[in-house]
C-alpha cells in the first residue's frame, strides 16, 4: 500500500505537531507500507522514507498566515504528487486537508483549540467554527484523534458520527537529547515547555509563583516561542511578573532543540502545564520520562494523558496552581512517588503502539475506497 503523507508541518523548529509526524513516520516505516512524504524539510525525516520537498513558503514561520499556505499547497500541488505516485491513501496528520480527494483521506485532529479560543487564532477560529466540521464530514474517509477527549469534542461540537472517528494516543513525545545546558539558566527552576499563547495560561502560572516567592527561591524557565501574530504574549507574561514582584525570576529561553530538551526537563524541580485547553500533552509525558514530577491543569485531555502520575490544579486559580506547586516542592515523599509513577506512565505510551493502530486505520480506509 502506497501512502502519500502531508508532512508540511515538519519544520526546522518543530513543535509538538512536527515531532508527532516525524516519530509516527519512523514507527510506520516498520510496517508494509510505502511512505512518500511531502515536506519543506526532507532532511529532518527518518532514513528510508521517500520525500518530496515542498516550497519554502509552506513553512508556517515564514509567514503571518501560519497554516494557510500549507492548506493552499494541499489543494493544488499535492494533487499532482498523488497522481504521480499513484497513492492509495492520502494521510494528513493535521487539519490542512484536501477537498474532494481522488483517494481515501485520513486526517488527524489533535485538538479544536481555535474553536474554543477564536480570539487567539484569527482566521483559524472562523475556519474551525464554520468550515472544518463540514470539511471533515464530506471530504475525509476517517478521522483520527490523539485522545478520547478530542474525539468527544468532535462528536459534541462538530456533530460528527462516532464511527467515523478513532482515538489513537500519541507516543511519548520527541526523542530527547541530554546536551549540556547554557550556564545562564537560573537554578532551581520550575519549567514550562510549549507555545506562548494566551490559552496556555502562563500569566496565572507567574502569579502563582509570585504567591510562593517568600517560601521558595525558584525561577520560572519558559521554553517556547509565541505563534506568529501573538508576540504580545511575552509582554503580557512580563506584566504579570511585574505585578507579582518576580520580574527577575522569569527566564525566557525561546526555542530549545530536542538535543537539549532532555537536560532541561531533568534539571527542573518540576514541570507545570497550566493550559486552559489541550488535545493531548507531550510536555508532561516527556518530563515524566526524565523523572521530573509534573503539575498540570485538571482538564480532560491532561487527566487522560497524565493519569495518577501528576498533581492537578484548577488553571483559572493562581492560588490553586500555587498549592499544587507547593505540594511538590515541599513534600519529598510525594515527589518521589510522582517520579516513580511518572516513569511508569510514560512507558505505557509508545510510537510503535500508535503506529500499529494507525496502520489498521490506513488499511481500512484503502479497502473502503474514496
Q: What is this entry, summarized?
A:
The protein has 370 residues and is an alpha/beta fold. It has helices at 16-28, 68-74, 77-85, 113-116, 123-139, 148-157, 202-211, 232-244, 258-267, 282-289, 300-306, 318-330, 332-347, 351-368; strands at 2-6, 34-39, 50-53, 89-92, 105-109, 142-145, 165-167, 189-193, 219-223, 250-254, 270-273, 294-297, 311-313.
Give the SSE layout.
Blueprint: E1 2-6, H1 16-28, E2 34-39, E3 50-53, H2 68-74, H3 77-85, E4 89-92, E5 105-109, H4 113-116, H5 123-139, E6 142-145, H6 148-157, E7 165-167, E8 189-193, H7 202-211, E9 219-223, H8 232-244, E10 250-254, H9 258-267, E11 270-273, H10 282-289, E12 294-297, H11 300-306, E13 311-313, H12 318-330, H13 332-347, H14 351-368
Parallel strand pairs: 1-2, 1-4, 2-3, 4-5, 5-6, 6-7, 8-9, 8-11, 9-10, 11-12, 12-13
Helix pairs in contact: 1-14, 7-8, 7-12, 10-13
Amino acid at each position: 500500500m502506497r501512502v502519500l503523507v502531508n508532512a508540511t508541518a515538519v519544520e526546522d523548529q518543530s513543535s509538538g505537531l512536527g515531532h508527532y509526524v516525524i516519530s509516527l513516520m519512523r514507527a510506520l516505516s516498520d510496517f508494509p507500507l510505502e511512505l512518500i512524504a511531502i515536506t519543506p524539510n526532507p532532511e529532518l525525516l527518518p532514513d528510508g522514507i521517500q520525500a518530496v520537498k515542498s516550497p519554502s513558503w509552506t513553512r508556517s514561520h515564514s509567514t503571518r498566515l501560519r497554516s494557510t499556505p500549507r492548506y493552499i499547497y494541499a489543494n493544488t500541488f499535492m494533487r499532482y504528487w498523488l497522481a504521480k505516485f499513484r497513492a492509495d491513501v492520502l494521510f494528513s496528520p493535521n487539519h490542512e486537508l484536501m477537498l474532494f480527494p481522488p483517494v481515501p483521506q485520513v486526517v488527524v485532529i489533535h485538538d479544536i483549540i481555535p474553536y474554543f479560543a477564536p480570539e487567539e487564532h484569527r482566521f483559524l477560529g472562523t475556519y474551525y467554527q464554520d468550515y472544518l466540521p463540514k470539511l471533515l464530514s464530506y471530504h475525509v474517509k476517517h478521522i483520527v484523534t490523539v485522545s478520547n477527549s478530542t474525539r468527544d469534542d468532535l462528536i459534541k461540537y462538530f456533530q460528527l458520527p462516532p464511527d467515523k472517528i478513532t482515538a489513537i494516543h500519541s507516543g511519548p513525545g520527541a526523542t530527547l537529547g541530554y546536551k549540556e545546558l547554557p550556564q545562564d539558566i537560573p537554578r532551581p527552576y520550575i519549567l514550562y515547555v510549549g507555545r506562548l499563547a494566551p490559552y496556555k495560561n502562563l500569566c496565572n502560572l507567574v502569579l502563582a509563583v509570585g504567591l510562593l516567592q517568600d517560601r521558595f527561591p525558584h525561577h520560572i524557565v519558559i521554553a517556547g516561542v509565541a505563534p506568529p501574530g501573538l508576540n504580545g504574549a511575552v509582554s503580557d507574561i512580563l506584566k504579570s511578573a511585574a505585578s507579582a514582584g518576580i520580574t527577575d525570576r522569569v527566564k525566557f529561553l525561546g526555542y530549545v532543540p530536542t538535543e537539549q530538551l532532555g537536560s532541561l526537563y531533568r534539571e527542573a524541580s518540576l514541570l507545570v502545564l497550566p493550559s486552559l485547553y489541550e488535545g493531548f500533552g507531550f510536555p508532561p509525558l516527556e518530563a515524566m520520562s526524565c523523572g521530573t514530577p509534573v503539575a498540570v491543569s485538571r482538564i480532560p485531555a491532561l487527566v487522560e494523558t497524565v493519569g495518577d502520575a501528576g498533581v492537578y490544579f484548577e488553571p483559572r486559580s493562581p492560588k490553586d496552581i500555587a498549592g499544587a506547586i507547593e505540594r511538590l516542592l515541599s513534600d519529598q515523599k510525594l515527589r518521589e512517588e510522582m517520579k516513580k509513577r511518572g516513569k511508569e506512565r510514560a512507558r505505557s505510551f509508545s510510537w510503535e503502539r500508535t503506529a500499529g493502530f494507525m496502520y489498521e486505520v490506513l488499511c481500512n480506509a484503502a479497502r473502503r475506497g474514496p
